[in-house]
């Protein structure tokens, strides 16, 4: 690309002007990265540190973190910015990365597509990241814990509140069974009592009949039975 | 040893003679309930003896008093103290065929206090024991969820973070102290009744009522499940536990012997106390259960078998518990180390995998050499496996905090949680049967309830009364009340009563008469071992344990541990002194059952002395009246 500019500028403006343009251009090329370096640095006020833990997340299936992955990150961030702002066209060049370590961690800043010297404020970047966090995580097969944006805390999952607490349901079942048990118990004891009473009154009547007929030890005795004495027997029972 | 016996007049009139016993046995007359078969009896006794103490007190004692070495004092005292006392209670109950009040008033009217003391202790213990059942039921009800509620902290009101109290301690602690107990910072604040606990409390008492409503008729059926299920669950947990990582660390920690502990007198005292409480002696329940046996049941064999089963269960349960504790401690240790490793990697931007558990110490050392201030600033936690293994492994802390945390780390947690709490519930319920038996039968013997009331009504009234009084324990401060009742109501009085029991049988009832009774019941006289232990060894051991316990309790200022979120060392429980009005309660709890023995004796003595003359007078009056009635009837006939 530089050679085209060189020949183009020479062709367009003659050799002297061409050299001037060429020198200016070269300075820009050298200066641009230097400028970018100034924008992105450790503890940059508008930058975020990203930390990636591939081995923790993927274990043996972990892929290698190389320049292509870095490019992918830039592309993903650009996508996130586009998605959030929906008007400005962010490009891969607008995401500047620096301070890479073998951990893997690095810093990044986002420049405005209109003016490459102007940085997007931290708050806007945060909003963009929050909005597309899920997509960013999935792009790298990572999670909130293993792809960390230091300073952007993951939102907590909303607690699931069922209408009836599950314990009340189990309690209801147990108490229902207990009540059924108690009722069954009381009914069975009542029935037993009635059976006993019935049995007793039947026995009592048999005894009376036997006495009236004058049956003693199975032998029929002749003669009348004096009721006066039987009544007395009952009253004197202490 | 006739010279040492106190003269006991009219004993023969109060107890059934051998002929009467034979008649009862052969004709199966009499309205005393009977066991359907021997298995029911054995399962009930095993269930009564094997309780929560075997699961959450014995393992702790074992580990803290030198592991494998603790077995030595435990086994020695089991043989010298546990087995003789057990045999004594079985034999005297089987011979005299009455509940605790009946037995002791038959031996001598002045000894009725022992029975009353047993009844009081059984009552106090029943009150708080069933609250523990209510807690177990609460956890059981909450185990039917995919994510157990104690596995994570709840989110706070604004959804910005986790609840602060939970974040500072741990999800299991928070769930136990806040969501279950809703505990107050001290015993003075009652905190009001916690409605969810009241529901569990009522259901626990209702379940108990169903099982005991007809005495051993219903209890005998219930024990088939409540006494056998814990063993099945323990076995399942053992198999599961042994397959988890780190379980053997726990078992090694439990059983590693430290012979120096044997020199420590506290070890022997704790072993003696554990044997005593583990056998549920002096509650009166064992006496009652034994009295439903046939006269010629071999109580000597039963005593030995039950002791072996109890001891073996304690060791088995300890092994199972410690496999799970070993797993939890290893997980926590691994988490601790991983946390430190991550901090190091993040601070120094080292590639992942550079620092592992193996080279952690080396790397830390070298980094400390080059960047000491940075390392200091990191506040790395010290990770020690042994300290994780010895955390909070006793009592309710073990069951509801440590074990529940271990369960959350196991796959398919709800299943394990349900199994564990069913096991605890069965263990406790079978012990409650014995406790309630020790309350109901003396009440019937004392004639507190009218004779026309059916058994269900008596059981029901007692359960309702206990349920209402037990509402103290479901308030906010209920946990503190429960520990109070446990330390003072369920400890000293039992020692006094057991000592009096031994002395009463050996010296008042007469050891010779007792030997003859046993010969009549099982066919041979008890051998020299029983004679020596009953007469000297066991009472001496009881006396020594009682004196040491009494001195220790009296000397120390009573303190309790409170959960106070505002205290300085927050997650650690705060030690607080009891307020002064608690001393009155302590006196009621420990004093009344303990003093009931001498007080009843004095009362009966006084009543006898002053009412003797009146009694004779009344008898004459009665005779005259009967004579007059007969005259009237005679006139009527003529």
From TrEMBL, chain A:
<keyword id="KW-0597">Phosphoprotein</keyword>
<dbReference type="GO" id="GO:0051957">
    <property type="term" value="P:positive regulation of amino acid transport"/>
</dbReference>
<keyword id="KW-1003">Cell membrane</keyword>
<keyword id="KW-1133">Transmembrane helix</keyword>
<keyword id="KW-0732">Signal</keyword>
<keyword id="KW-0472">Membrane</keyword>
<feature type="domain" description="Collectrin-like">
    <location>
        <begin position="44"/>
        <end position="238"/>
    </location>
</feature>
<dbReference type="InterPro" id="IPR031588">
    <property type="entry name" value="Collectrin_dom"/>
</dbReference>
<feature type="signal peptide">
    <location>
        <begin position="1"/>
        <end position="36"/>
    </location>
</feature>
<dbReference type="GO" id="GO:0070062">
    <property type="term" value="C:extracellular exosome"/>
</dbReference>
<dbReference type="InterPro" id="IPR042944">
    <property type="entry name" value="Collectrin"/>
</dbReference>
<dbReference type="GO" id="GO:0005886">
    <property type="term" value="C:plasma membrane"/>
</dbReference>
<protein>
    <recommendedName>
        <fullName>Collectrin-like domain-containing protein</fullName>
    </recommendedName>
</protein>
<keyword id="KW-0325">Glycoprotein</keyword>
<keyword id="KW-0812">Transmembrane</keyword>
<dbReference type="Pfam" id="PF16959">
    <property type="entry name" value="Collectrin"/>
</dbReference>
<feature type="transmembrane region" description="Helical">
    <location>
        <begin position="167"/>
        <end position="191"/>
    </location>
</feature>
UniProtKB/TrEMBL annotation, chain B:
<dbReference type="GO" id="GO:0015293">
    <property type="term" value="F:symporter activity"/>
</dbReference>
<dbReference type="InterPro" id="IPR037272">
    <property type="entry name" value="SNS_sf"/>
</dbReference>
<protein>
    <recommendedName>
        <fullName>Transporter</fullName>
    </recommendedName>
</protein>
<keyword id="KW-0325">Glycoprotein</keyword>
<feature type="transmembrane region" description="Helical">
    <location>
        <begin position="271"/>
        <end position="292"/>
    </location>
</feature>
<feature type="transmembrane region" description="Helical">
    <location>
        <begin position="113"/>
        <end position="141"/>
    </location>
</feature>
<feature type="transmembrane region" description="Helical">
    <location>
        <begin position="581"/>
        <end position="603"/>
    </location>
</feature>
<feature type="binding site">
    <location>
        <position position="50"/>
    </location>
    <ligand>
        <name>Na(+)</name>
    </ligand>
</feature>
<dbReference type="InterPro" id="IPR002438">
    <property type="entry name" value="Neutral_aa_SLC6"/>
</dbReference>
<feature type="binding site">
    <location>
        <position position="427"/>
    </location>
    <ligand>
        <name>Na(+)</name>
    </ligand>
</feature>
<feature type="binding site">
    <location>
        <position position="47"/>
    </location>
    <ligand>
        <name>Na(+)</name>
    </ligand>
</feature>
<feature type="transmembrane region" description="Helical">
    <location>
        <begin position="41"/>
        <end position="58"/>
    </location>
</feature>
<dbReference type="GO" id="GO:0031526">
    <property type="term" value="C:brush border membrane"/>
</dbReference>
<feature type="transmembrane region" description="Helical">
    <location>
        <begin position="488"/>
        <end position="511"/>
    </location>
</feature>
<feature type="binding site">
    <location>
        <position position="278"/>
    </location>
    <ligand>
        <name>Na(+)</name>
    </ligand>
</feature>
<feature type="binding site">
    <location>
        <position position="310"/>
    </location>
    <ligand>
        <name>Na(+)</name>
    </ligand>
</feature>
<feature type="transmembrane region" description="Helical">
    <location>
        <begin position="304"/>
        <end position="325"/>
    </location>
</feature>
<keyword id="KW-1133">Transmembrane helix</keyword>
<keyword id="KW-0915">Sodium</keyword>
<feature type="transmembrane region" description="Helical">
    <location>
        <begin position="532"/>
        <end position="551"/>
    </location>
</feature>
<dbReference type="GO" id="GO:0015175">
    <property type="term" value="F:neutral L-amino acid transmembrane transporter activity"/>
</dbReference>
<feature type="binding site">
    <location>
        <position position="54"/>
    </location>
    <ligand>
        <name>Na(+)</name>
    </ligand>
</feature>
